[in-house]
Design goal:
Strand content: 5-15%
Helix content: 40-55%
Number of strands: 7
Distance between the termini: 21 Å
Structural class: alpha/beta
Shape: elongated
Radius of gyration: 25 Å
Number of helices: 15
Strand order of the largest sheet: 1-4-5-6-7
Length: 345
């Protein structure tokens, strides 16, 4: 797939000036679709729960419906449910996934509800006979919000001080947590797709984001050009669109390799969807001030060379631009174009 030499699309500007609005929802349906593949569940468990990973036969992973129904109760919905056999003993495990973008202090209770509902529904579909065992439970919460996750990971932490002899009657349920934005990739294993995905979410610069996407592509291995690659590409396109990289070339990309071919040569955009420090805010303010001054110069150049009508094409775009690199490229386009028609193109 041939990448364009210049990826500025004047007809459909999408540059964001407010970092809080430049965020893509990392847990949108396109993101969740990435975890509908057994390999992603395999690598998620290996990255978060190595003790479980040694016990699970990942070749038996099977996705189940996450709509749970039990007698006398309304339907219950979780985000995602997987089943697998254990390597020894003939047992099974139910892996529940919950995707969170906001801090929810009730999540330990909700996870207990989702997991118990899943277990009851499993028994409803295959009633137990005497001596049969129920599956074990592995609950995982994937959190992608900006605030730190201060919610207890165990129900025991929600209980008041309790004598140890009474704890045996309490639900001491614990879930596994992946805190994407704040946690970063520290502690996650290398060469893992989940590690790479978190690296993309955590990238702070254009260069870093391109490098993380390249790693994600490299680690796909035999899944390149397959359904998982396409699912990751759909999510990546949504992410890049939200960061101000519009255009038909990106929309046409169907694999991560094609996305990289589009974005590597351009250098026309900046990553600003994760802002967590005062210095970042100051730097953004400085950049906005510079770009406003540069934008004025570009307008004057366009007016003098092509006339006010052609310069008007720039007005809406320049009012939104905060990246000095983009303004600089627009100035070059004014100088390099022979006429107004070429400039608009």
């Amino acid at each position: 797939m041939e990448a364009p030499p210049n990826f500025t699309d004047l007809r459909a500007p999408r540059i964001q000036t407010d970092p809080s609005q430049a965020q893509t929802d990392v847990h949108d349906p396109a993101y969740k679709e990435c975890f509908s593949f057994p390999r992603m569940i395999d690598e998620l468990v290996r990255s978060l729960a190595s003790r479980w990973a040694r016990e699970i036969d990942f070749s038996t992973l099977n996705r189940l419906s996450s709509e749970y129904v039990s007698a006398g109760r309304a339907n219950r919905y979780g985000d995602m449910l997987w089943e697998a056999r254990l390597l020894e003993g003939g047992g099974r495990v139910l892996i529940t996934l919950e995707f969170q973008n906001t801090v929810d202090y009730e999540i330990p209770l909700r996870v207990l509800d989702y997991s118990s509902s899943a277990l009851l529904d499993w028994v409803r579909r295959a009633p137990l006979s005497r001596g049969e065992k129920v599956p074990m439970l592995l609950p995982i919460v994937v959190y992608g919000g900006h605030r730190s996750w201060h919610v207890p990971t165990s129900l025991a932490d929600l209980l008041p001080p309790t004598p140890s002899e009474l704890l045996v009657n309490q639900p001491l349920y614990e879930y596994v947590l992946l805190e994407e934005r704040r946690g970063g990739t520290e502690g996650l294993p290398p060469g893992n797709l989940v590690t790479a995905l978190v690296g993309v979410v955590r990238a702070r610069t254009k260069t870093d984001l391109v490098a993380q996407l390249a790693q994600l592509h490299d680690w796909l291995g035999s899944d390149r050009d397959g359904a998982l690659d396409r699912a990751l590409t759909t999510w990546t396109r949504r992410l890049l669109n939200s960061l101000g990289l519009p255009g038909r070339h990106l929309r046409a990309a169907e694999t991560l390799k094609e996305v990289l071919e589009v974005i590597k040569p351009t250098g026309q955009w900046a990553v600003r969807w994760y802002e967590d420090g005062l210095e970042d805010g100051r730097e953004q303010g400085i950049q906005q001030g510079r770009s406003q001054g540069q934008a004025h110069v570009v307008r004057q150049l366009a007016v003098r060379k092509f006339g006010a009508e052609a310069a008007g094409v720039l007005r809406d775009l320049l009012d939104r631009v905060t990246d000095p690199e983009i303004v600089e490229e627009l100035a070059k386009a004014v100088v390099d174009s022979d006429n107004a028609e070429d400039f608009v193109e």
